[in-house]
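Reposting from the mailing list since nobody answered there.

I have sequence plus structure tokens for a pair of proteins and want to know whether others read the tokens the same way I do. The first protein:
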Amino acid sequence: MAENILTADGMEQLIRTYFDACNAGDVDAVASCFVPEGVHYFPPGMYGGPFVGSRLIGEKWRDAVQRLGSIWTVDSVITDPETARAAIEWTHFKTFQ
């Protein structure tokens, strides 16, 4: 990963790297976008709760790509390097359904 991701460009690149890795179903590439104990949260009751751990997150998205034909698009990215926050609008397509 880039040495200094806390620039607007660096933050957006990390986000796009993550979505590219998700689309590829690449467990290692997805995991590299998180700290080892990273958590991916969902609305209550969805997917049985959050995915905990960078590797598990990658495995779950690989499974979605293989089983459902999942593809994600990044529709909009807003970054705020001063607060280390970003907001993303994205779309999830399940091409096998």
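The second protein, same order (residues first, tokens after):
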Amino acid sequence: MIRQTSLDAYNELKANGKANTQRGIILQCLVLRSAHRIVLPLSRTELSDLLNIRINAICGRVKELLDDELVEEVPDHKCSITNNRVNGIKAILFVQS
């Protein structure tokens, strides 16, 4: 069950367009890494640090991107910040034929 405060905060982000902006920034970062053949995924903490977006916002936007099947989780990624084994995130690239 989602808490009402979380739902209210999410609705506010959607209303002011900030959620879409953050989604775009995160997705662009992951797509550009793939385009430059940087194969290592990023942890949510690494994304937060790299993009200077708070971790709670990163987690929410990554969840949306996962739900929309624009990114995927890669198991057993070692986070360079926490040194923990986590699920990394990378873009799913679609090839047009």
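Reply #1 (J.P.):
I read it the same way you do. Residues 77 and 86 are 5 Å apart (CA to CA).
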